[in-house]
Amino acid sequence: MIWKSTFREIKESLGRFLAILAIVALGVGFFAGLKVTQPAMLKTAQRYFDKTALYDYRLISTVGFSEDEVETIKKQKDVKAAEGAVTFDIICESGGKERVLKMHSITEDVNRLVLVDGELPENAGECVVDSNLYGVSMIGKTIKLSDGNDEDDLEHFSNREYKITGIVQSPLYSQFERGSTSLGNGRVSGFVYLLPEGFADDYYTEVYVKFACDFPLYSEEYDAYIEQKQDAWEALTEDLAAERYQTVRSEAETKLADGKKQLAEKKEETKSQLDDAKKQLEDAKSQIEDGEKQLADAKKKLEYAPDELEKKEAELTEAEKAIQEKETQLDQAEVALGIGYAQGVGQIQKALNGISEGLFSENGDQGNGAAGSFSSGDALADAGSQIADAKAQIADGRAQIAEAQKQIESGKSAIAKAKKQLEESKTQIAEKEAELSDAKTQYEDGKKEYEDGLSTYNEEIEKAEKKISDGEKTLKELKDPDTYVLGRDTNVGYVCFESDSGIVDGVADVFPIFFFLVAALVCVTTMNRMVEEQRTQIGVLKALGYSEHTIMAKYMFYSGSAALTGCVAGFALGTFLFPKVIWYAYGMLYKMDSLVYVFDWKLAVISVTVSLLCSIGTTFVSVRRELTEVAAELMRPKTPKAGKRVFLEYIPFVWKRLKFLQKVSMRNIFRYKKRFFMMVAGISGCSALLVTGFGVRDSVTGIVTQQYTQIQTYDIGVAYSSSVTPEQKSELESKEQDGVEKSVFVAEKSMDLVGSEKTKSVSLIIADPDSDMTPFVNLHTEKGVPITFPKKGEAVISAKVADELGIKTGDTVTLQDSDMKTISVTVSGLCENFVYNYVYLSADTYEEQMKTEPEYKNAFVCVSEGTDAHLLGTSLMAMSDVAAVNISQDDMERFSGMMGSMDLIVVVIILCAAGLAFIVLYNLTNINITERVCEIATIEVLGFYENETAAYVFRENTILTFLGALAGLVLGVFLHRFVMSQIVVDMVAFDVHVKPVSFVYSVVLTLVFTWFVDRLMRKKIDAISMTESLKSVD
To answer: Where does the ABC3 transporter permease C-terminal domain start and stop, copy by copy (predicted)?
Structure first.
């Protein structure tokens, strides 16, 4: 019967049973869920890093490692695996964009890749890329090494293009951060993995070592194991580097000597070839000049030849004319000679006739006539002689004319031949001109080729000589190699994951306990009210002979079953749901496997034990107190407490202005003090949780903006490879047109700040004594009071690290570097700082105590308004000796991303606080209505409307809720401070404060929850039966 009664009670008061179940489930779920989140995160990380074989040591040497040295490392004690790797930063083109990517060689036994899609490379021309930067669509496309890279950088690669075969995740990049670089804008956008054959180098830039140890992740045992090996591995790395240094130096000297010899031989050989070519050019030039001279002479002769021919032709014409004239004269002479001859003959005949006549005339006359006749005969004889002479002359003339005619014909023939030769000469000259033109072209080509060859020769010789000179200079300046033995604590993703999981653990140390306290309070209130309500039933059971143990077992089973069911449900849902939700938030930052479910038996036992103690324990106390009375007394209702005047009645001007129901409400509020305090305590707890949730968000999310806008007000940090020179200072100052508004040079050095019990790593900042740091770093206390830059013998320290080491203003502190050199200074101020730990020092102090001048290798730059800091950063990277450029905006985005994951955690806390507030309000309101059923029925009987009745009941709820919310604001401030003190992240300080609007949100949300509960409970008020409720208990 008792068990039937128990189950009937559960069924009839299902709302109260479920309220206990829900409050326990929420408390246990929140407690177990948050407490198991960090172990689940760490176990997930452990599985991921074990699967990918994340390195334990990363060995770096400035002279690299050979294959033999890697084999030596593999043989060391406890080494499970060791692999050499090649890493280079390079500017790549893909998808029409240029990005700086970090190129890695694929390793098989250490730092294994996780293939997301596609397949791994199979040859030197293939690669896999960062899944965080590229999508599946990039598979099959190519990545090209940009022509903007230095040739020396490109020489490290065997190809200029690589085909993408897949996208991967790497344990080296478990977080979104990809690191910084000296290329481009100083940011690495992603990573690319190649086969070792994809690199052209015959050495490794680093060696990854994995030890045969199985310590939990981030455990003290692992840290101690790694630390105790540090010295031995540093010595080993130094020895290997020293051996390789000697080998590299020897090879370099040999290579340099061979290079000099080859250069000398090449110079001699090339010089001989150039000299021969020069001589050939000179000979060709001489031949061309001779040809040009001959051609000019020929042209000149050719120029006069037509005139000469014309002259000769004219002479021939004149000669022909003269011959013709001579012939005419000869013809005339012959004619004249003929006439003369005829006359002569006539005269001779006449003379003969005269002679004959004279012979036959008288003697005297005949004698005179004969004498005359003989005289005429002599004349005739003379005329005949002259005729003969004339004929001879004519014949002679004819012969001369014939000879002249022959000469004329010969001249004509010669002129014709000369004309032919002239035409041939013209043709020959044209051919010679063409040949000379070709010769000139060949000469000019040869000359250009010679000049190009000479220029190339000079350039190549200059390059070779510069290369040899640089090699000699490098060899001369070659220092002992630097070596580094880096553990996992230098990997950004590894370290940040520990910090982020620590935040969750810090929250889990406080919030769940508070949830449990509120849940316990609700259980106590609920069971107390239930036992008081069922006094009569307890009395009847006792009167019927049931033992106290049996009666007690009924109520303990009621509360215990509700608590146990709620505990099991809450633990199951909480340990599954909360880690999943938080892991989803961190999944935006970290690329690992799916979350590993962790079942913590110890936590489960604690949850069950606390849940049962809160429920069964409070039930035992309540029932035990009632069972001390006799059955008859229990079956009678408790005598109501005597009414008392409330304090408002002593304030007439307030009390008289209240309506009747308002006065009743005020009396009820202050009359039932236990209900008053329970209600206020429960609501204040929920409100405090809301304030704390909002406060955690306010304290975490705003620190990055404050750090980079109110403390470190510079926009760009520039790092040089060595101490800056006056020329480099001037070069930076000259960048005003590019957007540099102000700049200051500082020395930055990592040192240890030694405390009384522990030591913390800090970054020492020393400003140029001639510069003003105010525009770049705003030093002020946590209350906003300005701090002047430290003078000689003083230092300003970040408040967080000072608080951790117990340092106060006026204390004397010691700074120690890696060489064990120390600086002792007086703390002149503790400055507000949220990211990293800084100590600010004057140059005089450093120089006096360290006996050396600071190395100013860094510069802070403020950019002018409207200037793109990234474009300016690219310009600054091009300056001489600049090693890296860091954009403050990038740091702000990176840290904002890290802290942004807190938003979802805070949302979860707020939702759980809201759920808790809802359940608390529902429970307390349900109790309030249940124990006042008769009173509410009486109000209804008196004729009050339903809305008035509901307002009468809920007015008390609203007032108590408001009072509880106000109390929760105060409680929330202290709870928030305590929670923030438990959230410890190395080198990150939080701005512990709650924004005014967060207080408003907390009160408003609490009142909204009250309004929802009132709407829900309205049905219960309307369902109260006036007749049944007013029946006497007797």
So the answer is: 510-625, 908-1012
d(CA 729, CA 880): 11
Report how far residue 939's alpha carbon sits from residue 589's, in angstroms, rounded to the nearest whole number: 59
Fold (CATH) for 253-477:
Helix Hairpins (1.10.287)
Q: Show the CA angle centred on residue 995, arms to residues 989 and 1001, nearest 5°.
A: 130
Are the C-beta atoms of 543 and 631 separated by less than 8 Å?
Answer: yes
Tokens encoding 40: 């689940």
Three-class DSSP category at 595: coil
pLDDT of 448 higher than 50? yes
Q: Which one-letter DSSP state was computed for residue 196?
A: G
Check: CB of residue 880 under 8 Å from CB of residue 482: no
Most confident of 276-285, 498-507, 789-798: 789-798
State pLDDT tens for residues 1-50: 667 777 777 787 787 788 788 888 888 888 888 888 888 888 998 999 99
Residue 1016 tokens read as 């829900």
d(CA 1029, CA 481): 93
Q: Between the CA of residue 731 and those of 177, 473, 767, 862, what are the distances in Å?
A: 31, 25, 19, 15
- Amino acid 563 reads A
Domain locations in the chain as residue ranges: 1-49+499-639, 50-230+484-490, 253-477, 672-702+889-1034, 722-880
What is the chain's mean pLDDT, rounded?
Answer: 80
Tokens of 789: 């830059």
Show the tokens assigned to 583. 């892991």
Whose tokens are 């021939």? That residue is 316
State the greatest distance between any 2 C-alpha atoms of the chain, in Å, as a whole number: 247
* Assigned token pair, 72: 């030596």
Q: Which residues partner with 206 through β-bridges?
A: 60, 85
The percentage of the chain sitting over the pLDDT mark of 70, rounded to a whole number, equals 84
State the helix-helix crossing angle for 548-587 and 618-627, rounded to 10 degrees. 160
- Separation CA 793–CA 690 (nearest Å): 47
704 in Cβ contact with 890 (< 8 Å): no
Per-residue model confidence as pLDDT tens digits over 856-897? 888 999 998 888 887 888 788 778 878 778 888 877 776 676
Q: Is 47 exposed, middle or buried (0-12, 13-18, 19+ CB in 10 A)?
A: middle
